[in-house]
Amino acid sequence: MFKKLPGDEARNLVSTTPDTAVVFRPAVVKTPAIVTLLIWLFRLIAGLVRLVVRHPVAVAVPVGLGVIWTLYGRTMALTVGGFVPAMGLSWFLLERDSFLRLVGWRLLAWWRLIVVYRRHWQPVVVISGLGRHLRGRDYLPHLRRVTCDEWADRVSVKMLAGQAVKDWADRAEHLAHGFGAPSCRVAVARAGRLVLTFPRRDPLAVPLPAVPVPDDPDVGPVEIGRCEDGRPLRLKVHGTHVLIAGATGAGKGSYLWGTIRGLLPTIRAGLVQVWALDPKRMELSFGRDLFRGRYAADPAECADLLDEAVSVMQERADRFAGLQRSHTPTIDDPFILVVVDEVAFLTAYQPDKHLRQRITAALATLTTQGRAVGVGIMAALQDPRKEVMNIRNLFPDKIALRLDESEQVDMVLGDGARDRGALADHISPIPHRGAGVGYLRLKTSPDPVRVRAAYVSDADVRDMAQRYGNASTESTDTANGCAGDTGHGCRGGVDGFEYGSEAA
Ligand SMILES: Nc1ncnc2c1ncn2[C@@H]1O[C@H](COP(=O)(O)OP(=O)(O)OP(=O)(O)O)[C@@H](O)[C@H]1O
């Protein structure tokens, strides 16, 4: 048995150059059979240890049953074998979350590793160009492990030495198709290690109804929709500025109205004011009543309103200097959110050069200095080119909705965002599928997150204006015994508002 090991055959392989002048004969070094056997044995033991460490539950179940069979006989083993699935089913039915966290997702990950990723790994990475064939040997990136949660598989990969993240990001589409996923997101785990995220289902595939108005006033992140992983999308507006870019019909209105909707209780409590600039007159005019007179559509009025915001900002900066470094909304110093729809009308398409410069200067001043004193900007636009919006980089948080060209994605979200999976140019133009879907990139994270804003319909906006607009506030104020402005005179009356009557 030991006489015919593979090396013996290699000795007989002789090759020559075409003119047979040079003869190549392989040098065969004989490895003692015992060394080969020891190496195999070592590999077997290492593989078993790895199996136990990686899949403890999958190993423990058959081993446990085997031990029971040996010690107590077949009947007992079959009884226990039937008992375990029954226990699992009961656990799943009674405590779904803990079952999935501790068992379910691990089993699924193991199954997907075997059936999808390990099975297709070699052909997919070779055909997509991520593997290398050098001197007769295949060099493949190492598939390390798969984890699953409710919406996606996360595949940890060790790149080949010398590969760059960009090599993988460029092949995201190949990988997605290769493993039968709708998309693939590439993120760096640490040097040389990547995590590929393959969603299994898309919670953003259908429109979401408007998020209910919160019960309590809170200027913290406002829930306006859902993230791709099914978690609520909470958009921070206090303490930052947000730029939303998307082609016509991409659903920018949902982000503006969703945010205003989430802030309604704070508006009523006097902790937030929304100042609206609506040069198109189509979007924000619907809810004029909510802005308590701070609404402008005409470009000159818009410039005046922005100048007023700059004055408030500077007055606060003078007052806060040396006393506080961040803003806490109060009735005396509410958070002012300046909402600008189609900002390009004011910064680029405005024929009056003087007005254009005035507006751009005010926006630049507010975006650079307004954050710390409680003045935030939320601006929407269709065309993200620099000529149209040269201050776009002053917005820390950005959202790219459906865009017409792939180059526009990086213009909005910053360099490399598209390579990291922000395929805003692939979002469906069909409103039902794609309106409100976008990629959010926060200043704090380079990885864009796919999100969808809930749809705030015209009826919702009308309802909001009716319940929380000027008229309703005045009547509530009167009922509270502090007629007129909700501001300084109503401090004690805040608790008196009927938040409980709001639809949950
Ligand atoms: N979040 C959403 N979910 C589902 N459908 C939406 C959503 N937002 C908007 N839509 C649909 O898309 C249409 C266009 O939306 P919207 O007017 O907000 O787009 P827009 O980006 O503001 O366009 P424009 O720049 O032309 O004003 C809406 O009439 C609605 O039918």
From TrEMBL:
Residues 230-410 form the FtsK domain. It comes from the Bacteria. Keywords: ATP-binding, Membrane, Nucleotide-binding, Transmembrane, Transmembrane helix. InterPro entries: FtsK/SpoIIIE/SftA, FtsK_dom, P-loop_NTPase. The chain crosses the membrane at residues 33-53. ATP binds at residues 246-253. PROSITE patterns: FTSK. This is FtsK/SpoIIIE domain-containing protein. It comes from Sphaerimonospora cavernae.
